[in-house]
Design a protein that fits this description.
Blueprint: H1 26-69, H2 79-89, H3 95-101, H4 107-120, H5 124-149, H6 152-164, H7 166-172, H8 178-195, H9 209-221, H10 228-239, H11 244-265, H12 280-290, H13 295-308, H14 313-332, H15 348-359, H16 364-377, H17 379-384, H18 395-405, E1 412-414, H19 419-422, E2 426-428, E3 433-434, E4 439-440, E5 442-445, H20 450-454, E6 478-481
Antiparallel strand pairs: 1-2, 3-4, 5-6
């Protein structure tokens, strides 16, 4: 007589299958808890890293915008800004003829400013606001680039360091293309890094299309800044050597508009004849001059850059950006007058990133404290450059004096250069003045030479100085007629 199989036995003949073990042992439970706790800690660290990354670019942009807008309209426009002001008010039809006479290489920038002025006007505040926005975007881009190539701590520190430098505020206040060039240089570099990353799956040449567009805009805004391509070649060589041929195609396409502009503007090279050819002591003085001639700021940035330089990838990339374009321009400047620090401002972000690498190795609080110390050192310069003659020429004060005291037949002495060197001098008589902003409708941007005027070269000379200079002269003279 057969028996009914029990509930624990298989109804099929054969050996009984072993039952699975229940995971109830204490060691296994502890291991599970540790794994869960570890994943939670990792998630928290990742969340904090992402939060610091967002804070890096947002905080840097906010600090830069606040500093850039502080007393934005207080400094009087100096002669180059007055050229921008003049071009912002001419008719569209008249611009080609004017550019054919002068400032052809700045033509694209003048067209942008002309369109901007069509909407926002030609006040000091309105004409300087594009530079403010560009420098604010550049500060955010520096933070993103530091985060992308290193970590959020480096990005946060580099973005803040860039924002508090007096030189960035100074050129955020200037109605000229330098801030736009800095911004485009930052984002061209950022896009280059992304194009060289392994996440890009497009064809090798196609992946560089956004980069080529940014390079084209950079060359049109500031053709000298195309020397950044020397650093970009080194970056591509380090990041993805196999992409060098594709990058060269994109760089050539992007550089073509700026190179064409340089070629067409070569016949106007007399406009930069005031720039002296480069000498070795100019290269030695370059770090200090780049940061506004402030010795302590320059020394601090050089020290941080040396600490941030390394053989590892971020340090090599940032060092290439800070040095190679400078060396390229310096080599050319032995034969062509190009050596002036304004033309090399697009390397300032690289110095800030090297400083961020150095400070990023310490605790975040200490890094922020170091940035605060550098900001404190720069306070006197920040205050000085926001004075009425903060851009080296108190043109608004001169206009006010002449408007108040000028008599029929009055004039002033002007020179295209220092008469002690060239012997050239001229007389101009401004006739019509705009009281709304104390700028002349017919502006002769000239620097007065008191001795010449006192000898009676001009009837009833107006005793007014346009600016200040260690040599007694404030710069060269130009004539802008509206």
């Amino acid at each position: 007589m057969s028996r009914r199989p029990s509930s624990t036995e298989s109804p099929i003949a054969g050996p009984t299958l072993p039952q699975p073990r229940r995971l109830t042992s204490a060691p296994t439970t502890q291991r599970l808890r540790k794994a869960v706790d570890g994943s939670s800690v990792g998630a928290n660290v990742h969340a904090k890293t992402r939060a610091l990354g967002r804070l890096a670019w947002i905080g840097s942009a906010v600090v830069m915008f606040v500093l850039a807008t502080a007393r934005l309209s207080w400094p009087a426009m100096w002669q180059d800004e007055l050229a921008t002001w003049g071009m912002a008010g001419v008719s569209w039809d008249a611009m080609p003829a004017l550019l054919n006479q002068a400032d052809l290489v700045l033509g694209p920038y003048y067209y942008v400013i002309r369109a901007w002025a069509e909407v926002f006007g030609t006040s000091d505040l309105a004409l300087r606001m594009p530079s403010v926005l560009a420098m604010t975007a550049a500060a955010a881009g520096v933070a993103v680039l530091g985060t992308r190539l290193a970590n959020p701590r480096v990005g946060f520190t580099a973005g803040l360091l860039f924002a508090v430098l007096p030189v960035t505020s100074r050129y955020a206040h200037e109605a000229r293309p330098y801030a736009l060039a800095i911004c485009l240089a930052v984002f061209a570099t950022l896009v280059l890094v992304e194009s060289c990353s392994g996440r890009q799956r497009r064809a090798r040449v196609a992946r560089f299309a956004p980069y080529a567009l940014l390079v084209a805009l950079l060359g049109l805004v500031h053709a000298v800044a195309l020397s950044l391509l020397v650093a970009h070649l080194a970056m591509v060589w380090v990041l993805q050597r196999r992409l060098v041929p594709a990058w060269m195609v994109a760089a050539a396409v992007g550089a073509a508009p700026g190179a064409t502009l340089l070629y067409l503007g070569h016949r106007q090279r007399s406009q930069i004849a005031w720039i002296e050819l480069a000498r070795w002591d100019d290269l030695l003085a370059y770090p200090g001059m780049l940061f506004g001639g402030l010795a302590l700021i320059g020394a601090a940035m050089v020290a941080l850059a040396l600490l941030g330089t390394s053989a590892r990838q971020p340090g090599v990339l940032f060092t290439a950006w800070a040095t190679l374009p400078v060396l390229a321009i310096f080599a050319v400047a032995w034969f062509t007058p190009l050596w002036t620090t304004r033309y090399l401002l697009f390397t300032v972000p690289a110095w800030a990133l090297l400083g961020g690498l150095a400070l990023g190795r310490t605790h975040l609080a200490r890094a922020v404290l170091a940035v605060a110390v550098i900001a404190a050192i720069g306070i006197p310069a920040q205050v000085e450059q926001r004075d009425t003659d903060g851009h080296s020429q108190a043109t608004r004060d001169v206009a006010a004096i002449i408007d108040r005291a000028a008599q029929p037949g009055d004039g002033w002495c002007s020179a295209l250069a220092n008469p002690a060197r060239t012997g050239s001098a001229g007389i101009s008589s401004p006739t019509t003045w705009r009281r709304s902003d104390a700028r002349p409708t017919c502006w002769c941007s000239a620097h007065l030479e008191a001795a010449m005027c006192s000898r009676g070269s001009v009837p009833n000379p107006v005793p007014a100085w346009l600016g200040r200079s260690a040599s007694g002269w404030c710069g060269s003279a130009t004539t802008r007629t509206r």
